[in-house]
Structure formats: structure tokens, C-alpha cells
């Protein structure tokens, strides 16, 4: 049984930055859409969970940019469900060029929440929904996406605020996951994001945000001996961490 889903894309001009590189948030858009379609293949997609008053929520994702696709590149994105590990349902992604060379790899961790209470649904309550034939143990990235947090003992710099608006909100009624990546990239100086390639991105989603809420953005920067730059970007709203991202250039 084929338990992977593959879709072909041609990178459009509006999906790229000033260097013609695919924007990281656009990859996130591709991945989210693929995840919904792939889950639906095995009867645990959006519509299937709706019948039980539940919904998928992305908790963490780790994206490794091996060779960033450019405008007009023809690429192939593949995704597969890796089964349950602890609290999380794992799903991996791999983007290849038309020669079969790996461009991007990613691993994601998902939970199911009750739409009304917004509380987690225990995995043992969902076991009957998941067909073991859907599971593929291949790894795009071997380890699940790790926890990211602002380093203790640091005083992060506040770099701005964002009010959640129409362009941010998805069909579930909260900020779409890809928008947090947009905010995180925008919280880094343009002279860096426009001249250096993003190598690695990990983002954790801790607390949903909705229309009208103000998200404060904080930044912490470190530089390695090899000149590698790492940023921790945290978004806070109403005293709670909404997201925390680690970006390596």
C-alpha cells in the first residue's frame, strides 16, 4: 500500500524573496496543505475529525533547508505519517528537485484538540481512527522537532508588536502557523535575511492567537565561531508565550 503522498509544484514568483529563493513560510503553506490531504487519504483528515468535534493542531516543526528552491524550479513534495510518539502524531516531509536531489527536509509533531473546549484529546481516545497501514517509519529528519525556548538568564530585545488581522487568521479561527514564520523572519534585520541563507528552522506553537490580539516580539541573537548566526524569536500575548522559533543562518 502506498502510504506517502507526493505533489509537484513550480515555484512561483510570488513565493520567493528578493534573491528568488522560496520563502520559508511558503514551504510551511505547502506542508500544511499536504498534511490535510494526506491525512484524509486514511480517514483521519479534517472532515473526519470534524465529525467528532476535534481538529488537528500543529505543535512543533523542524525544517532543514539543504538547498533552497528558486523561482521557476520544479519540485516534488512528499509527506508521510510516522505514527504516534508520546503525546504527538509525527509527520515528515521531503522536497526534491526534478533530478531527485533533496532540497528541504522536515519533521512535524501534531496534537488533536476539542474544538469547543480547546483541550487536548488523549491519544488513546483516537486509536480507533488510525489504520496502522497508514504508518511509514521512514525519516526525513530522524529526531522529532525539539522544544525551543528563550535561553534562561538572557534579556531578549523587544523588536516590535503585531496585531493579529484578517491576513493572519485561518479557517479554524486562529492565526495560521505559517504567519508566525513570517513574523519571525520580519523580526530579524533585513540585511541578514536578504543576504544570508536560512539553514535551519525550528518553531514551537504554545498558545493560539486570534483576531485583534497584540503579539509582542522578542529577539535573542548568538554568533558561532564559524560565523553562523542563530536567532531565538519569541512571540508573547497577554503574558503567555504564543510561539518560539529558532532560526540559523
Q: Which tags fit this structure?
A:
249 residues, mainly beta, 15% helix
Question: What does this protein structure show overall?
Answer:
The chain has 249 residues and is mainly beta. It contains four helices and ten strands; from the N terminus they run E-H-H-E-E-E-E-E-H-H-E-E-E-E. A hairpin with a 2-residue loop joins strand 9 (229-237) and strand 10 (240-248). The longest helix is centred in the N-terminal third of the chain and has 18 residues, at 24-41. The chain is globular. The model has no long low-confidence stretch (mean pLDDT 92).
**Number of helices in the DSSP assignment:** 4
List the strand order in the largest sheet. Answer: 1-3-4-5-2-7-10-9-8-6
Give helix and strand order, one letter per element, not per position. EHHEEEEEHHEEEE
Main pleated-sheet profile: 10 strands, antiparallel
Average pLDDT across residues? 92
How much helical structure, as a percent, in the residues?
Answer: 10-25%
What share of residues are in beta strands? 35-45%
Instruction: Sum up the overall morphology in one term.
Output: globular
- Span between N and C termini? 39 Å
| Gyration radius, in Å | 18 Å
Low-confidence runs of at least 5 consecutive residues: none
The total count of strands amounts to 10
- Which class best fits the helix and strand makeup? mainly beta
